[in-house]
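ASSEMBLY PREDICTION REQUEST
Request ID: AP-0331
Submitted by: J.K., bench scientist
Number of chains: two
Total residues: 588
Priority: normal
Notes: Please return the full assembly, not individual chains.
Input sequences:
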Amino acid sequence: MEIVKPDSTPLADKLGPVAILGVGLIGGSIGLALRNRNAAKSVVGWDMDRSALQAAVVRGAIDEAADTAAEAVKQASIVVLATSNAAAIGLLREIRPSLPPDAIVTDVGSTKRSIVAAADNLLHGRFVGGHPMAGAETSGIGAALSTLFVGAVWALTPSQETEEDTYDRVVALVKAVDAIPYRCSASEHDRAVAYLSHLPHVLAYGLAYTGGEAVPEDLKGLAAGSFRDGTRVSQSRADLWTEILLDNSGPVIESLEGFVRWIEAARQAIGSGDREALAALLSEARRARGRFPR
Amino acid sequence: MEIVKPDSTPLADKLGPVAILGVGLIGGSIGLALRNRNAAKSVVGWDMDRSALQAAVVRGAIDEAADTAAEAVKQASIVVLATSNAAAIGLLREIRPSLPPDAIVTDVGSTKRSIVAAADNLLHGRFVGGHPMAGAETSGIGAALSTLFVGAVWALTPSQETEEDTYDRVVALVKAVDAIPYRCSASEHDRAVAYLSHLPHVLAYGLAYTGGEAVPEDLKGLAAGSFRDGTRVSQSRADLWTEILLDNSGPVIESLEGFVRWIEAARQAIGSGDREALAALLSEARRARGRFPR
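STATUS: Completed
Returned structure:
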Protein backbone atom coordinates (compact mmCIF):
# COMPACT_ATOMS: atom_id res chain seq x y z
CA MET A 1 0.00 0.00 0.00
CA GLU A 2 1.23 3.49 -0.74
CA ILE A 3 -0.46 6.81 -0.90
CA VAL A 4 0.07 8.28 -4.33
CA LYS A 5 1.09 11.86 -3.71
CA PRO A 6 -1.22 14.36 -5.37
CA ASP A 7 1.67 15.72 -7.44
CA SER A 8 3.32 12.43 -8.46
CA THR A 9 1.11 11.86 -11.51
CA PRO A 10 -0.03 15.26 -12.78
CA LEU A 11 -3.45 15.45 -14.39
CA ALA A 12 -1.84 16.71 -17.59
CA ASP A 13 -4.56 16.17 -20.13
CA LYS A 14 -8.27 16.16 -20.01
CA LEU A 15 -9.69 12.66 -19.70
CA GLY A 16 -11.08 11.20 -22.90
CA PRO A 17 -14.73 10.18 -23.24
CA VAL A 18 -15.96 8.54 -20.03
CA ALA A 19 -18.81 6.00 -19.86
CA ILE A 20 -20.58 5.51 -16.53
CA LEU A 21 -22.65 2.34 -16.17
CA GLY A 22 -25.04 2.86 -13.28
CA VAL A 23 -25.96 6.45 -12.43
CA GLY A 24 -26.97 6.13 -8.78
CA LEU A 25 -25.36 7.95 -5.86
CA ILE A 26 -21.78 7.04 -6.82
CA GLY A 27 -22.03 6.96 -10.62
CA GLY A 28 -24.10 10.13 -10.63
CA SER A 29 -21.63 11.90 -8.34
CA ILE A 30 -18.71 10.90 -10.58
CA GLY A 31 -20.58 12.31 -13.56
CA LEU A 32 -21.38 15.56 -11.77
CA ALA A 33 -17.81 15.89 -10.52
CA LEU A 34 -16.31 15.35 -14.00
CA ARG A 35 -18.76 17.63 -15.78
CA ASN A 36 -18.59 20.42 -13.18
CA ARG A 37 -14.81 20.43 -13.51
CA ASN A 38 -14.94 20.03 -17.30
CA ALA A 39 -12.48 17.18 -16.78
CA ALA A 40 -13.68 14.71 -19.44
CA LYS A 41 -14.20 15.07 -23.16
CA SER A 42 -17.72 13.71 -22.67
CA VAL A 43 -19.72 11.64 -20.19
CA VAL A 44 -22.09 9.00 -21.51
CA GLY A 45 -24.35 7.21 -19.02
CA TRP A 46 -26.39 4.05 -18.94
CA ASP A 47 -28.62 2.61 -16.23
CA MET A 48 -30.97 -0.36 -16.02
CA ASP A 49 -33.47 2.10 -14.53
CA ARG A 50 -34.59 4.38 -17.39
CA SER A 51 -36.04 7.02 -15.08
CA ALA A 52 -32.76 7.28 -13.17
CA LEU A 53 -30.99 7.68 -16.49
CA GLN A 54 -33.30 10.51 -17.51
CA ALA A 55 -32.83 12.13 -14.12
CA ALA A 56 -29.05 11.94 -14.61
CA VAL A 57 -29.40 13.92 -17.86
CA VAL A 58 -31.67 16.48 -16.21
CA ARG A 59 -29.27 16.87 -13.25
CA GLY A 60 -26.36 17.32 -15.62
CA ALA A 61 -24.50 14.24 -14.40
CA ILE A 62 -24.12 12.93 -17.97
CA ASP A 63 -24.02 14.52 -21.41
CA GLU A 64 -25.85 11.71 -23.08
CA ALA A 65 -27.94 8.65 -22.20
CA ALA A 66 -27.24 5.36 -23.97
CA ASP A 67 -29.83 2.67 -24.64
CA THR A 68 -27.58 -0.22 -23.73
CA ALA A 69 -24.38 -0.71 -21.78
CA ALA A 70 -22.64 -1.91 -24.95
CA GLU A 71 -23.64 1.25 -26.78
CA ALA A 72 -22.47 3.45 -23.88
CA VAL A 73 -18.91 2.13 -24.03
CA LYS A 74 -18.48 2.16 -27.85
CA GLN A 75 -16.63 5.50 -27.91
CA ALA A 76 -15.27 5.38 -24.37
CA SER A 77 -11.71 5.84 -23.23
CA ILE A 78 -12.54 5.06 -19.57
CA VAL A 79 -15.48 2.93 -18.45
CA VAL A 80 -16.68 3.20 -14.83
CA LEU A 81 -18.83 0.36 -13.51
CA ALA A 82 -20.95 1.93 -10.78
CA THR A 83 -23.52 -0.77 -10.15
CA SER A 84 -23.70 -3.51 -7.53
CA ASN A 85 -20.79 -5.95 -7.64
CA ALA A 86 -22.82 -8.82 -9.13
CA ALA A 87 -24.23 -6.57 -11.85
CA ALA A 88 -20.74 -5.20 -12.56
CA ILE A 89 -19.36 -8.70 -13.17
CA GLY A 90 -22.23 -9.35 -15.58
CA LEU A 91 -21.57 -6.04 -17.35
CA LEU A 92 -17.90 -6.93 -17.92
CA ARG A 93 -19.06 -9.78 -20.15
CA GLU A 94 -21.71 -7.70 -21.83
CA ILE A 95 -19.48 -4.76 -22.78
CA ARG A 96 -16.30 -6.63 -23.72
CA PRO A 97 -17.13 -7.09 -27.41
CA SER A 98 -17.94 -3.36 -27.75
CA LEU A 99 -14.93 -1.92 -25.89
CA PRO A 100 -12.54 0.13 -28.07
CA PRO A 101 -9.06 -1.48 -28.09
CA ASP A 102 -7.49 1.21 -25.89
CA ALA A 103 -10.38 1.64 -23.46
CA ILE A 104 -9.81 0.78 -19.82
CA VAL A 105 -12.30 -0.18 -17.14
CA THR A 106 -12.61 0.48 -13.42
CA ASP A 107 -15.34 -0.05 -10.83
CA VAL A 108 -16.43 1.40 -7.49
CA GLY A 109 -17.61 -1.70 -5.60
CA SER A 110 -17.17 -2.26 -1.86
CA THR A 111 -15.35 -5.57 -2.32
CA LYS A 112 -12.50 -6.14 -4.73
CA ARG A 113 -11.32 -9.77 -4.96
CA SER A 114 -14.29 -11.14 -6.88
CA ILE A 115 -14.47 -8.39 -9.51
CA VAL A 116 -10.70 -8.24 -9.97
CA ALA A 117 -10.60 -12.00 -10.56
CA ALA A 118 -13.40 -11.75 -13.10
CA ALA A 119 -11.82 -8.77 -14.87
CA ASP A 120 -8.37 -10.37 -15.00
CA ASN A 121 -9.98 -13.21 -16.93
CA LEU A 122 -12.00 -11.03 -19.24
CA LEU A 123 -9.98 -7.86 -19.79
CA HIS A 124 -6.35 -8.95 -19.36
CA GLY A 125 -4.65 -5.91 -17.91
CA ARG A 126 -7.13 -3.22 -18.85
CA PHE A 127 -8.90 -3.16 -15.49
CA VAL A 128 -8.17 -1.60 -12.10
CA GLY A 129 -10.51 -2.19 -9.17
CA GLY A 130 -11.53 0.96 -7.32
CA HIS A 131 -13.44 1.84 -4.17
CA PRO A 132 -14.13 5.44 -3.17
CA MET A 133 -14.36 5.58 0.64
CA ALA A 134 -17.06 8.21 0.43
CA GLY A 135 -20.48 6.63 0.34
CA ALA A 136 -23.50 7.84 2.23
CA GLU A 137 -26.56 6.24 3.73
CA THR A 138 -28.56 7.95 0.99
CA SER A 139 -28.84 6.46 -2.49
CA GLY A 140 -29.91 7.25 -6.04
CA ILE A 141 -29.17 10.00 -8.52
CA GLY A 142 -31.22 12.44 -6.41
CA ALA A 143 -28.59 12.20 -3.66
CA ALA A 144 -25.59 12.60 -6.01
CA LEU A 145 -23.16 15.44 -5.29
CA SER A 146 -20.33 16.85 -7.39
CA THR A 147 -18.31 17.20 -4.16
CA LEU A 148 -18.88 13.70 -2.78
CA PHE A 149 -15.27 12.62 -3.31
CA VAL A 150 -13.40 15.80 -2.40
CA GLY A 151 -10.56 14.81 -0.08
CA ALA A 152 -11.80 11.23 0.23
CA VAL A 153 -9.54 8.22 -0.01
CA TRP A 154 -10.18 6.12 -3.16
CA ALA A 155 -8.72 2.63 -2.94
CA LEU A 156 -7.20 1.26 -6.16
CA THR A 157 -6.33 -2.42 -6.38
CA PRO A 158 -4.27 -3.20 -9.50
CA SER A 159 -3.52 -6.90 -9.97
CA GLN A 160 -0.41 -8.49 -11.47
CA GLU A 161 -2.27 -8.38 -14.79
CA THR A 162 -2.89 -4.62 -14.68
CA GLU A 163 -0.82 -2.60 -17.17
CA GLU A 164 0.96 0.45 -15.74
CA ASP A 165 -0.72 2.78 -18.25
CA THR A 166 -4.15 1.49 -17.21
CA TYR A 167 -3.34 2.22 -13.60
CA ASP A 168 -2.09 5.74 -14.37
CA ARG A 169 -5.26 6.60 -16.27
CA VAL A 170 -7.49 5.50 -13.40
CA VAL A 171 -5.33 7.54 -11.01
CA ALA A 172 -5.99 10.53 -13.28
CA LEU A 173 -9.75 9.88 -13.09
CA VAL A 174 -9.62 9.69 -9.30
CA LYS A 175 -7.64 12.91 -9.09
CA ALA A 176 -10.03 14.58 -11.50
CA VAL A 177 -12.82 14.24 -8.92
CA ASP A 178 -10.47 15.51 -6.16
CA ALA A 179 -10.13 12.16 -4.39
CA ILE A 180 -6.89 10.66 -3.04
CA PRO A 181 -5.69 7.43 -4.74
CA TYR A 182 -4.72 4.72 -2.23
CA ARG A 183 -3.00 1.70 -3.74
CA CYS A 184 -3.29 -1.75 -2.15
CA SER A 185 -3.98 -5.33 -3.19
CA ALA A 186 -7.54 -6.60 -3.55
CA SER A 187 -7.15 -8.97 -0.61
CA GLU A 188 -5.52 -6.32 1.62
CA HIS A 189 -8.43 -4.07 0.70
CA ASP A 190 -11.13 -6.63 1.40
CA ARG A 191 -9.74 -7.58 4.81
CA ALA A 192 -9.24 -3.93 5.85
CA VAL A 193 -12.71 -2.80 4.77
CA ALA A 194 -14.26 -5.80 6.53
CA TYR A 195 -13.11 -4.11 9.75
CA LEU A 196 -13.38 -0.47 8.68
CA SER A 197 -16.65 -0.45 6.75
CA HIS A 198 -18.48 -3.79 6.73
CA LEU A 199 -18.22 -4.45 10.48
CA PRO A 200 -19.40 -0.89 11.30
CA HIS A 201 -22.41 -1.42 9.02
CA VAL A 202 -23.33 -4.73 10.69
CA LEU A 203 -23.03 -3.08 14.12
CA ALA A 204 -25.21 -0.17 13.01
CA TYR A 205 -27.94 -2.51 11.80
CA GLY A 206 -27.68 -4.59 14.99
CA LEU A 207 -27.83 -1.53 17.24
CA ALA A 208 -30.84 -0.14 15.36
CA TYR A 209 -32.71 -3.42 15.71
CA THR A 210 -31.78 -4.03 19.34
CA GLY A 211 -32.66 -0.51 20.46
CA GLY A 212 -35.78 -0.40 18.33
CA GLU A 213 -37.15 -3.61 19.81
CA ALA A 214 -36.22 -3.05 23.45
CA VAL A 215 -37.09 0.60 24.01
CA PRO A 216 -40.80 1.49 24.27
CA GLU A 217 -42.04 4.06 21.75
CA ASP A 218 -42.60 6.73 24.39
CA LEU A 219 -38.96 6.53 25.51
CA LYS A 220 -37.37 6.51 22.04
CA GLY A 221 -36.96 10.28 22.31
CA LEU A 222 -34.08 9.60 24.72
CA ALA A 223 -31.93 8.43 21.79
CA ALA A 224 -28.66 10.30 22.17
CA GLY A 225 -26.04 11.41 19.68
CA SER A 226 -24.14 8.17 20.22
CA PHE A 227 -27.21 6.19 19.07
CA ARG A 228 -27.80 8.44 16.09
CA ASP A 229 -24.17 8.23 14.94
CA GLY A 230 -23.95 4.53 15.75
CA THR A 231 -27.01 3.71 13.64
CA ARG A 232 -26.64 6.23 10.80
CA VAL A 233 -25.54 3.73 8.19
CA SER A 234 -28.37 1.32 9.06
CA GLN A 235 -30.32 3.51 6.65
CA SER A 236 -28.19 2.20 3.78
CA ARG A 237 -29.83 -0.09 1.23
CA ALA A 238 -30.37 -3.55 2.72
CA ASP A 239 -30.12 -5.31 -0.66
CA LEU A 240 -26.72 -3.79 -1.49
CA TRP A 241 -25.38 -4.57 1.97
CA THR A 242 -26.63 -8.13 1.86
CA GLU A 243 -24.58 -8.58 -1.29
CA ILE A 244 -21.46 -6.87 0.06
CA LEU A 245 -21.44 -8.91 3.28
CA LEU A 246 -21.92 -12.19 1.42
CA ASP A 247 -19.27 -11.34 -1.17
CA ASN A 248 -16.76 -10.63 1.61
CA SER A 249 -18.02 -13.25 4.05
CA GLY A 250 -14.63 -14.64 5.11
CA PRO A 251 -13.08 -11.36 6.34
CA VAL A 252 -16.46 -10.14 7.65
CA ILE A 253 -16.90 -13.22 9.82
CA GLU A 254 -13.32 -12.89 11.06
CA SER A 255 -14.09 -9.28 12.05
CA LEU A 256 -17.36 -10.25 13.76
CA GLU A 257 -15.59 -12.93 15.75
CA GLY A 258 -12.88 -10.54 16.88
CA PHE A 259 -15.50 -7.99 17.82
CA VAL A 260 -17.65 -10.44 19.79
CA ARG A 261 -14.54 -11.58 21.71
CA TRP A 262 -14.02 -7.99 22.86
CA ILE A 263 -17.69 -7.61 23.76
CA GLU A 264 -17.58 -10.81 25.82
CA ALA A 265 -14.56 -9.51 27.71
CA ALA A 266 -16.40 -6.24 28.40
CA ARG A 267 -19.50 -8.11 29.52
CA GLN A 268 -17.41 -10.22 31.90
CA ALA A 269 -15.86 -7.12 33.43
CA ILE A 270 -19.22 -5.36 33.78
CA GLY A 271 -20.98 -8.43 35.15
CA SER A 272 -18.34 -9.12 37.76
CA GLY A 273 -17.91 -5.44 38.65
CA ASP A 274 -14.22 -5.58 37.69
CA ARG A 275 -13.52 -1.87 37.51
CA GLU A 276 -9.87 -2.26 36.68
CA ALA A 277 -10.41 -4.71 33.82
CA LEU A 278 -13.20 -2.59 32.33
CA ALA A 279 -11.18 0.63 32.59
CA ALA A 280 -8.25 -1.10 30.87
CA LEU A 281 -10.46 -2.33 28.01
CA LEU A 282 -11.94 1.12 27.43
CA SER A 283 -8.60 2.95 27.69
CA GLU A 284 -6.92 0.56 25.29
CA ALA A 285 -9.80 0.98 22.82
CA ARG A 286 -9.60 4.75 23.13
CA ARG A 287 -5.90 4.61 22.27
CA ALA A 288 -6.54 2.23 19.37
CA ARG A 289 -8.91 4.78 17.81
CA GLY A 290 -6.20 7.41 18.08
CA ARG A 291 -4.01 5.47 15.64
CA PHE A 292 -6.40 6.25 12.77
CA PRO A 293 -6.22 9.39 10.66
CA ARG A 294 -8.90 11.95 11.65
CA MET B 1 -43.18 9.54 30.28
CA GLU B 2 -44.46 12.75 28.81
CA ILE B 3 -42.86 15.58 26.95
CA VAL B 4 -43.46 18.80 28.80
CA LYS B 5 -44.55 21.25 26.13
CA PRO B 6 -42.33 24.29 25.95
CA ASP B 7 -45.29 26.55 26.78
CA SER B 8 -46.87 24.49 29.57
CA THR B 9 -44.67 25.91 32.33
CA PRO B 10 -43.64 29.39 31.28
CA LEU B 11 -40.24 30.62 32.42
CA ALA B 12 -41.93 33.46 34.27
CA ASP B 13 -39.18 34.69 36.53
CA LYS B 14 -35.47 34.73 36.35
CA LEU B 15 -33.96 31.79 38.19
CA GLY B 16 -32.52 32.60 41.60
CA PRO B 17 -28.85 32.08 42.43
CA VAL B 18 -27.55 28.88 40.86
CA ALA B 19 -24.63 26.83 42.20
CA ILE B 20 -22.81 24.48 39.84
CA LEU B 21 -20.65 21.80 41.43
CA GLY B 22 -18.27 20.52 38.79
CA VAL B 23 -17.44 22.89 35.92
CA GLY B 24 -16.43 20.45 33.18
CA LEU B 25 -18.07 20.08 29.78
CA ILE B 26 -21.62 19.83 31.14
CA GLY B 27 -21.40 22.08 34.21
CA GLY B 28 -19.41 24.67 32.28
CA SER B 29 -21.92 24.62 29.43
CA ILE B 30 -24.83 25.11 31.85
CA GLY B 31 -23.03 28.09 33.36
CA LEU B 32 -22.30 29.60 29.94
CA ALA B 33 -25.88 29.02 28.80
CA LEU B 34 -27.39 30.65 31.92
CA ARG B 35 -25.01 33.60 31.91
CA ASN B 36 -25.25 34.26 28.15
CA ARG B 37 -29.05 34.36 28.48
CA ASN B 38 -28.90 36.33 31.73
CA ALA B 39 -31.27 33.67 33.08
CA ALA B 40 -30.02 33.35 36.66
CA LYS B 41 -29.53 35.91 39.42
CA SER B 42 -25.97 34.64 39.78
CA VAL B 43 -23.90 31.54 39.04
CA VAL B 44 -21.44 30.30 41.65
CA GLY B 45 -19.11 27.44 40.73
CA TRP B 46 -16.98 24.94 42.52
CA ASP B 47 -14.69 22.20 41.25
CA MET B 48 -12.25 19.78 42.84
CA ASP B 49 -9.82 20.90 40.13
CA ARG B 50 -8.79 24.47 41.00
CA SER B 51 -7.39 25.21 37.54
CA ALA B 52 -10.68 24.16 35.90
CA LEU B 53 -12.47 26.45 38.34
CA GLN B 54 -10.24 29.38 37.41
CA ALA B 55 -10.75 28.62 33.72
CA ALA B 56 -14.52 28.66 34.27
CA VAL B 57 -14.25 32.20 35.66
CA VAL B 58 -12.07 33.30 32.75
CA ARG B 59 -14.44 31.76 30.19
CA GLY B 60 -17.40 33.48 31.84
CA ALA B 61 -19.14 30.23 32.79
CA ILE B 62 -19.50 31.34 36.43
CA ASP B 63 -19.67 34.69 38.20
CA GLU B 64 -17.76 33.51 41.21
CA ALA B 65 -15.59 30.59 42.32
CA ALA B 66 -16.19 29.05 45.75
CA ASP B 67 -13.52 27.38 47.87
CA THR B 68 -15.68 24.48 48.94
CA ALA B 69 -18.85 22.82 47.72
CA ALA B 70 -20.57 23.72 50.99
CA GLU B 71 -19.69 27.39 50.53
CA ALA B 72 -20.89 27.34 46.92
CA VAL B 73 -24.42 26.30 47.89
CA LYS B 74 -24.87 28.60 50.90
CA GLN B 75 -26.84 31.25 48.98
CA ALA B 76 -28.18 28.98 46.23
CA SER B 77 -31.73 28.55 45.11
CA ILE B 78 -30.86 25.74 42.65
CA VAL B 79 -27.85 23.45 43.00
CA VAL B 80 -26.64 21.51 39.95
CA LEU B 81 -24.40 18.50 40.59
CA ALA B 82 -22.31 18.17 37.43
CA THR B 83 -19.66 15.70 38.53
CA SER B 84 -19.39 11.94 38.10
CA ASN B 85 -22.21 9.98 39.69
CA ALA B 86 -20.11 8.66 42.58
CA ALA B 87 -18.80 12.14 43.36
CA ALA B 88 -22.34 13.56 43.16
CA ILE B 89 -23.61 11.11 45.79
CA GLY B 90 -20.72 12.15 48.05
CA LEU B 91 -21.49 15.82 47.47
CA LEU B 92 -25.13 15.35 48.51
CA ARG B 93 -23.91 14.47 52.00
CA GLU B 94 -21.32 17.21 52.06
CA ILE B 95 -23.64 20.06 51.06
CA ARG B 96 -26.77 19.05 52.96
CA PRO B 97 -25.94 20.95 56.16
CA SER B 98 -25.27 24.15 54.19
CA LEU B 99 -28.31 24.09 51.88
CA PRO B 100 -30.78 26.97 52.40
CA PRO B 101 -34.20 25.58 53.42
CA ASP B 102 -35.86 26.34 50.08
CA ALA B 103 -32.95 25.31 47.85
CA ILE B 104 -33.47 22.41 45.48
CA VAL B 105 -30.94 20.09 43.88
CA THR B 106 -30.61 18.37 40.52
CA ASP B 107 -27.87 16.46 38.74
CA VAL B 108 -26.79 15.62 35.19
CA GLY B 109 -25.53 12.05 35.55
CA SER B 110 -25.93 9.33 32.92
CA THR B 111 -27.64 6.90 35.32
CA LYS B 112 -30.49 7.84 37.60
CA ARG B 113 -31.56 5.06 39.99
CA SER B 114 -28.57 5.21 42.31
CA ILE B 115 -28.47 9.00 42.75
CA VAL B 116 -32.27 9.29 43.06
CA ALA B 117 -32.25 6.64 45.82
CA ALA B 118 -29.46 8.46 47.65
CA ALA B 119 -31.15 11.86 47.26
CA ASP B 120 -34.55 10.58 48.40
CA ASN B 121 -32.87 9.53 51.62
CA LEU B 122 -30.92 12.72 52.13
CA LEU B 123 -33.05 15.53 50.68
CA HIS B 124 -36.65 14.32 51.04
CA GLY B 125 -38.42 15.78 48.05
CA ARG B 126 -36.02 18.56 47.15
CA PHE B 127 -34.24 16.62 44.42
CA VAL B 128 -35.00 15.79 40.78
CA GLY B 129 -32.63 13.61 38.79
CA GLY B 130 -31.70 15.03 35.39
CA HIS B 131 -29.80 13.89 32.33
CA PRO B 132 -29.18 16.16 29.34
CA MET B 133 -28.94 13.96 26.21
CA ALA B 134 -26.34 16.26 24.77
CA GLY B 135 -22.88 15.17 25.74
CA ALA B 136 -19.89 15.05 23.46
CA GLU B 137 -16.77 12.97 23.20
CA THR B 138 -14.84 16.02 24.31
CA SER B 139 -14.55 16.96 27.97
CA GLY B 140 -13.51 19.76 30.28
CA ILE B 141 -14.33 23.44 30.60
CA GLY B 142 -12.34 24.15 27.42
CA ALA B 143 -14.96 22.22 25.42
CA ALA B 144 -17.97 23.88 27.09
CA LEU B 145 -20.48 25.64 24.84
CA SER B 146 -23.37 27.95 25.69
CA THR B 147 -25.39 26.23 22.93
CA LEU B 148 -24.70 22.62 23.95
CA PHE B 149 -28.28 21.98 25.09
CA VAL B 150 -30.25 23.89 22.45
CA GLY B 151 -33.05 21.63 21.24
CA ALA B 152 -31.68 18.63 23.15
CA VAL B 153 -33.85 16.32 25.20
CA TRP B 154 -33.18 16.57 28.96
CA ALA B 155 -34.52 13.62 30.92
CA LEU B 156 -36.02 14.44 34.34
CA THR B 157 -36.77 11.62 36.75
CA PRO B 158 -38.83 12.82 39.73
CA SER B 159 -39.47 10.14 42.35
CA GLN B 160 -42.53 9.72 44.54
CA GLU B 161 -40.71 11.85 47.11
CA THR B 162 -40.21 14.80 44.74
CA GLU B 163 -42.34 17.86 45.54
CA GLU B 164 -44.22 19.37 42.56
CA ASP B 165 -42.61 22.77 43.14
CA THR B 166 -39.14 21.23 43.05
CA TYR B 167 -39.95 19.59 39.74
CA ASP B 168 -41.29 22.83 38.24
CA ARG B 169 -38.18 24.76 39.21
CA VAL B 170 -35.90 22.20 37.53
CA VAL B 171 -38.11 22.32 34.42
CA ALA B 172 -37.55 26.10 34.41
CA LEU B 173 -33.78 25.58 34.60
CA VAL B 174 -33.87 23.12 31.71
CA LYS B 175 -35.93 25.50 29.60
CA ALA B 176 -33.61 28.36 30.48
CA VAL B 177 -30.81 26.60 28.59
CA ASP B 178 -33.17 25.85 25.67
CA ALA B 179 -33.42 22.12 26.28
CA ILE B 180 -36.60 20.01 26.17
CA PRO B 181 -37.72 18.43 29.48
CA TYR B 182 -38.57 14.72 29.14
CA ARG B 183 -40.22 13.20 32.21
CA CYS B 184 -39.81 9.50 33.00
CA SER B 185 -39.03 7.30 35.99
CA ALA B 186 -35.43 6.60 37.01
CA SER B 187 -35.74 2.92 36.10
CA GLU B 188 -37.41 3.63 32.74
CA HIS B 189 -34.57 6.07 32.08
CA ASP B 190 -31.80 3.67 33.05
CA ARG B 191 -33.13 0.83 30.91
CA ALA B 192 -33.73 3.08 27.88
CA VAL B 193 -30.31 4.74 28.03
CA ALA B 194 -28.65 1.33 28.41
CA TYR B 195 -29.81 0.69 24.85
CA LEU B 196 -29.67 4.24 23.49
CA SER B 197 -26.44 5.54 24.98
CA HIS B 198 -24.50 2.94 27.00
CA LEU B 199 -24.69 0.14 24.41
CA PRO B 200 -23.61 2.50 21.58
CA HIS B 201 -20.62 3.55 23.70
CA VAL B 202 -19.58 -0.07 24.36
CA LEU B 203 -19.89 -0.84 20.64
CA ALA B 204 -17.82 2.22 19.74
CA TYR B 205 -15.02 1.17 22.10
CA GLY B 206 -15.19 -2.42 20.81
CA LEU B 207 -15.11 -1.34 17.17
CA ALA B 208 -12.16 0.99 17.78
CA TYR B 209 -10.20 -1.77 19.48
CA THR B 210 -11.08 -4.50 16.97
CA GLY B 211 -10.29 -2.34 13.94
CA GLY B 212 -7.20 -0.87 15.54
CA GLU B 213 -5.72 -4.28 16.30
CA ALA B 214 -6.63 -6.06 13.06
CA VAL B 215 -5.85 -3.46 10.40
CA PRO B 216 -2.16 -2.80 9.62
CA GLU B 217 -1.03 0.81 10.07
CA ASP B 218 -0.52 1.35 6.34
CA LEU B 219 -4.15 0.40 5.59
CA LYS B 220 -5.76 2.44 8.39
CA GLY B 221 -6.29 5.25 5.90
CA LEU B 222 -9.13 3.17 4.42
CA ALA B 223 -11.27 3.95 7.48
CA ALA B 224 -14.60 5.10 6.08
CA GLY B 225 -17.28 7.42 7.42
CA SER B 226 -19.06 4.46 8.97
CA PHE B 227 -15.96 3.67 11.04
CA ARG B 228 -15.46 7.29 12.04
CA ASP B 229 -19.09 7.70 13.13
CA GLY B 230 -19.19 4.27 14.73
CA THR B 231 -16.13 4.98 16.88
CA ARG B 232 -16.62 8.68 17.60
CA VAL B 233 -17.66 8.23 21.22
CA SER B 234 -14.74 5.87 21.93
CA GLN B 235 -12.89 9.15 22.52
CA SER B 236 -15.02 9.76 25.61
CA ARG B 237 -13.32 9.54 29.01
CA ALA B 238 -12.66 5.90 29.90
CA ASP B 239 -12.88 6.54 33.67
CA LEU B 240 -16.34 8.14 33.44
CA TRP B 241 -17.63 5.39 31.18
CA THR B 242 -16.26 2.65 33.42
CA GLU B 243 -18.31 4.15 36.22
CA ILE B 244 -21.47 4.60 34.14
CA LEU B 245 -21.42 1.04 32.81
CA LEU B 246 -20.85 -0.44 36.27
CA ASP B 247 -23.54 1.73 37.86
CA ASN B 248 -26.06 0.53 35.24
CA SER B 249 -24.70 -2.99 34.87
CA GLY B 250 -28.03 -4.83 34.88
CA PRO B 251 -29.65 -3.01 31.95
CA VAL B 252 -26.30 -2.73 30.13
CA ILE B 253 -25.75 -6.49 30.26
CA GLU B 254 -29.33 -7.08 29.10
CA SER B 255 -28.66 -4.79 26.13
CA LEU B 256 -25.34 -6.49 25.32
CA GLU B 257 -27.01 -9.89 25.37
CA GLY B 258 -29.77 -8.75 23.04
CA PHE B 259 -27.22 -7.21 20.74
CA VAL B 260 -24.99 -10.28 20.63
CA ARG B 261 -28.03 -12.45 19.82
CA TRP B 262 -28.65 -10.30 16.74
CA ILE B 263 -24.98 -10.44 15.74
CA GLU B 264 -24.98 -14.24 16.06
CA ALA B 265 -28.02 -14.42 13.78
CA ALA B 266 -26.28 -12.18 11.25
CA ARG B 267 -23.10 -14.25 11.45
CA GLN B 268 -25.10 -17.43 10.86
CA ALA B 269 -26.73 -15.94 7.78
CA ILE B 270 -23.42 -14.64 6.40
CA GLY B 271 -21.55 -17.87 7.14
CA SER B 272 -24.16 -20.07 5.50
CA GLY B 273 -24.69 -17.70 2.57
CA ASP B 274 -28.37 -17.35 3.46
CA ARG B 275 -29.18 -14.29 1.36
CA GLU B 276 -32.84 -14.21 2.30
CA ALA B 277 -32.24 -14.41 6.06
CA LEU B 278 -29.54 -11.74 5.93
CA ALA B 279 -31.64 -9.40 3.80
CA ALA B 280 -34.54 -9.84 6.25
CA LEU B 281 -32.32 -9.01 9.25
CA LEU B 282 -30.97 -5.86 7.59
CA SER B 283 -34.36 -4.67 6.32
CA GLU B 284 -35.98 -5.19 9.70
CA ALA B 285 -33.15 -3.25 11.37
CA ARG B 286 -33.47 -0.45 8.85
CA ARG B 287 -37.18 -0.15 9.66
CA ALA B 288 -36.49 -0.27 13.41
CA ARG B 289 -34.23 2.77 13.08
CA GLY B 290 -37.01 4.61 11.31
CA ARG B 291 -39.15 4.46 14.45
CA PHE B 292 -36.83 6.90 16.24
CA PRO B 293 -37.17 10.66 16.04
CA ARG B 294 -34.62 12.26 13.63
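REVIEWER COMMENTS: Strands of chain B lie at 2-3, 18-21, 43-46, 64-65, 78-81, 104-107, 127-132, 153-157, 180-183.
SIGN-OFF: pending second reviewer
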